[in-house]
């Protein structure tokens, strides 16, 4: 059996003295991924975040959020393809009030996330080297999407 090796940094503790919230409006071009990492980083700088957690929450049921690879754009293309295969427009959905992409958009949102939490230390999100925060637009036409940014922690 292979030897397992783990390590852990020293724990840090701070008193939570701040909750700061902001609303980000993102205009999407239609179906696809829009990276939000820089906008979240800018929010953390503006509020002088030091240590805590940042929550990213989208206020919609036909768009979602994810943390995914940011190095190879083919990953995002393949993820779009996978979601389309899981919830195709031509599956005979009953709910089609806003068009054939309406119900598939709700299903794709259900399969992904509407809320993300990322730890913050020394004012920076503790994302992995190749991780980025994305808004996924599941509708074909452009939309203005509202994303809540909230930092809880110490400044």
Descriptive overview:
By secondary structure, the chain is an alpha+beta fold. Helix content is about 20%, strand content about 35%. It has a five-stranded antiparallel sheet, covered by helices on one side. Strands 2-7-4 form a three-stranded antiparallel sheet, sandwiched between helices.
List SSEs in N-to-C order.
EEHEEHHEEEE
Number of beta strands: 8
Helix tally equals 3
What Rg do the Cα atoms give?
Answer: 18 Å
Distance between the termini: 46 Å
Residue share in helix: 10-25%
Summarize model confidence as the mean pLDDT. 95
The gross shape turns out to be globular
List the uncertain runs: none
Structural category:
alpha+beta
Q: Percent of residues in beta strands?
A: 35-45%
The major β-sheet equals: 5 strands, antiparallel
* Sheet with the most strands: spatial strand order: 1-8-3-5-6
List keywords for this structure.
5-stranded antiparallel β-sheet; 155 residues; globular
Describe how the helices and strands are arranged.
Layout: E1 18-28, E2 32-35, H1 37-46, E3 51-58, E4 63-69, H2 73-86, H3 102-111, E5 115-121, E6 124-125, E7 131-137, E8 143-154
Antiparallel strand pairs: 1-8, 2-7, 3-5, 3-8, 4-7, 5-6
